[in-house]
Amino acid sequence: MSIDIATVRSLAHLAQIGIEDGDLQTWAQEFDTMLAAVEPLAAVNVEGVEPMTNPAHSLRLILVEDGVTDGNVQEDVLRGAPDAREGFYAVPKVRE
Amino acid sequence: MTKLNTLTIAAARDGLRKRDFTAAELAEACLGAMDEARALNAFALETGDEARRQAAAADTRLGAGAAPDLCGIPLGIKDNLLTRGTPTQAGSRILEGFVPPFEGAATTRLWQDGAVMLGKLNLDELAMGVSTATSVHGPALNPWRADGGAKLSPGDGATAAVAARIVPGAIGSDTGGSLRQPASWAGVVGMKPTWGRVGRSGLVAVASSLDQIGPVARDVRDAAILLGAIAGRDAGDSTSSDREVPDFEAALSGDIRGRVVGIPRQYRDAPMDDAVAALWERGIGMLRDAGAEVRDIVLPNFAHGPAVFATIMPAEASSNLARLDGVRFGYRAKLGPGEGISEMYDRTRAEGLSHEVQRRLMIGTHMLSSGFYEVYFNHARKVRRLIAQDFETAFESGVELILTPGAPTAAPAADDPALLDAVTMYDAHAFTVGASLAGLPAISVPAGTDAQGLPLGLQLIGRAWDEAGVLNAAFSLERAAGFVASPARWW
Questions:
Q1: Which CATH number fits the domain that encloses residue B121?
Q2: Strand B455-462 and strand B442-449: pairing?
Q3: Which domain holds residue B95?
Q4: How many CB pairs under 8 A join A and B?
């Protein structure tokens, strides 16, 4: 299953990583190599096997009271933002 | 007098309690060692002022008596663990300038116990890799690889700092083996506890179903002390366990008579250095001589580990790391006139993330995309269950521990092309990914050297929640191996 240039473009878009048109072919080859490394898995018979989401060993989900235990840290969290104004994160215009 | 920075945690603890020396003196010795070892590039950020402040507070507490084990002990913290008020960059440009507004659970426990932070340790960008080759700070160097400077080996900040006697211990994270396999290359102990044993709030998440926080130390006793300090329920992490944390140090009797140790002998044929194969054989003998019952076991799907890892890790990372987008923290690319938010995202991630991380995020996106989800991600999750079931089958048959090498080779030289090849690097994790995929506790213990004098480690994997049993067997192995070598100082 080889990756074509249109797929690379779409992946870059989905992953929100800007890549150069001139590099599309190189990326495609790189992805082919990465996929080839996992290809042997296809031969493993997994009939009737449930997918494993996490390796929790008898871990029970602990329920806690539904109440506010944290917060009022607006200044703290906005301090790290590249651009923050009037209590909000500021971003450039959204135009799709 | 012994240089204070060369003491183990246990020895330093005892000396501090007897007031043979002060926490301030201990911190100064370590800061001096850090200063002299800059060539190793083990630290991404040095926090000397904070260390001196914490050491002074520790001395007050020690003077009052009944201080915790870690009171006054200098530690390094891997820079993917969020430390309040201290910049945390996880080896990536995209977190440039990020100062966390809160402290993670594991380190909160350390500071409550009075530990002293010497600095933030260098790591691969966003913990992806095994050699710090992708760190924005440049590679940390393995102190063992001197060779007249010609054959330096990229190492890992945590294991380099501990091996070079800058700090007696460090806390890091392990997704596929990043505590154990570099430990094997650096002649120190690295341990990944059971998934859920240590709370992960404040860890820069890469692959949540794999990530665990654990200790790096010079010996098994110190690893036990560190693990005991960071383990336990974390209200900020719903996957952390509230089960009781045993006294791991008290479990170190060294008595493993009657313990059943499984050897997955089929991997004798796997690619590995001759010295590693020979050490594995000697390790089997050491455990047998100590009274353990050694049995051959079969883990039929263990060899699929690296390929399963190479699917699940990028897939989960592609989702987790979507948050690094230039909006709430870290780096944001400069925009030109007329450009909008899409350009901001694309360029921020293009400029802020290295090629290695970009390709993992894009391939992970591919493996999760419709049409390929079943073929790659879900299929890998099924093989993952088979790998986990193989361990369960072995444990159900009475096996309590499994012995393997820590890594298939000794530390590679910097010019080794394998270091640049991600596929080969996944293979460096060949022995460690299994326990990560199955969520089991595992430890790497230095047990010998190769012909060049480079250290080699052996790994013990145990049953879920049996860190005490794993540590005790490792303690026995450590005593039998009698590994005392330390890197000749060239830095």
A1: 3.90.1300.10
A2: antiparallel
A3: 4-251
A4: 178
